[in-house]
Amino acid sequence: xxxxxxxxxxxxxxxxxxxxxxxxxxxxxxxxxxxxxxxxxxxxxxxxxxxxxxxxxxxxxxxxxxxxxxxxxxxxxxxxxxxxxxxxxxxxxxxxxxxxxxxxxxxxxxxxxxxxxxxxxxxxxxxxxxxxxxxxxxxxxxxxxxxxxxxxxxxxxxxxxxxxxxxxxxxxxxxxxxxxxxxxxxxxxxxxxxxxxxxxxxxxxxxxxxxxxxxxxxxxxxxxxxxxxxxxxxxxxxxxxxxxxxxxxxxxxxxxxxxxxxxxxxxxxxxxxxxxxxxxxxxxxxxxxxxxxxxxxxxxxxxxxxxxxxxxxxxxxxxxxxxxxxxxxxxxxxxxxxxxxxxxxxxxxxxxxxxxxxxxxxxxxxxxxxxxxxxxxxxxxxxxxxxxxxxxxxxxxxxxxxxxxxxxxxxxxxxxxxxxxxxxxxxxxxxxxxxxxxxxxxxxxxxxxxxxxxxxxxxxxxxxxxxxxxxxxxxxxxxxxxxxxxxxxxxxxxxxxxxxxxxxxxxxxxxxxxxxxxxxxxxxxxxxxxxxxxxxxxxxxxxxxxxxxxxxxxxxxxxxxxxxxxxxxxxxxxxxxxxxxxxxxxxxxxxxxxxxxxxxxxxxxxxxxxxxxxxxxxxxxx
Length: 622
What we know:
Largest sheet: 5 strands, parallel
Number of domains: 5
Number of helices: 19
Strand content: 15-25%
Low-confidence stretches: 1-10, 200-206
Helix content: 40-55%
Number of strands: 22
CATH architecture of the largest domain: 2-Layer Sandwich
Shape: rod-shaped
């Protein structure tokens, strides 16, 4: 007798059930294979004999191969010592009846129909084993995946919280523990409100928006900025993002909330904003003209001083080029100078003259390239200083010096000329007295007298201009002064065809003036107005005052030929005149000098061919 193979653990199951198989067909071989493979270990069978009349049956041959006893006699098998179970596999009822007839007492019979339980048990066991194996594999995989997932979220530099749909915390990463000081065991299984909201209140931040609740309500990702204090009591800022997780049915199942530390970004942003504010304050406060353009010539920055020069707001320049803002000539000039800077990568200094609204503006400009962090040119910057007033003052100073020298020369010349001129006039008057009216020389004598008198007037004007005295001022009524001058000139024969229209402001404030000098001013302006109309036309004289600026105004308007733009710049130059032999070019320079010595100013409004208005502004008395 040979026992079943060593695949059956005898130590685990010490008591074997000795069995004999009746029938050596395919069923016999199948049971033997199950025993050998250990798939019937639950029955703990010990096959001691196989019975079949055919010694070459497949089951008999396999039993012999396994070392199990075989026989063709059923009686022999039933007499085996220790036999406990006989398994009938032939399916023959006669053999089953015979078996029941000879079976020894105490030996159990399992017929062929009941023997199928072996296969059913095997299949059930194998199914359970497979399920257990698959479950074990799944558990290992799940454990491995969970560990891998935890390692992944632990490697993330942001704090991460995973919550179920009830906002119960399922997992946190290492960064969360580092920031909050709470380990996973302290938070997993708890509601997020009891962890995060309590943490915010404990740091005196009060209630704040909850992105997870918003995401739960909308099903969309939500992002907010939270501020708190760190362990050192300093401000800390986090960008909190809540993302929804959906199951395979599209239902919201979990939430992942991340906390990205942005304290450094907030600090840098504040520093950048502060730098921009200081830069803008510096730019806007500068009296110099400052502009910054990109490589295409579009304005990026322009300060109010620069924009005001062109009578525009800074906002009207941003994003535009010079071609869009100025006339072609000026735009081309700006473009060439900007390109010069960009091409040569160095600064250039220029003296520029711009004509805006008919007025010249002189600028001292410095242009230099604007560089990025790599040192590449990304635009041009221009800083200009308006030196128009300095130029004007410089010219005035030079002009004043010339006039002073001219005055000294004129005083000397006038003094030397005046003596012989007096003698000429004395003798010519005697000659006119002694000459009869019908004498042909009388007309020549009259020409000599007229021209000598004109020379005397020129000499007198030269002396007045050279010896300009400081005015002795007293409060005077300008209206009365106007009336005196008009009464004086209206009686002159040369002005008999001139009409005067006066608009004198009642209760006009008095002005502190030298009446003699101011009378000379009025007389010169009225005579100039009459001469511009060639002795025929209307002269209008008006007065008024402005309490806001505490000034008194006097305007004299004519209907004459006006002043051309070319001559307008020269009318105050000594000896400049458009009257030819009738003028000496000293009237208006004297007028301007007197008005300026009174602390006043003259404004000229003229239309060539239509007339001119001289408006005098004088300080009003207190």
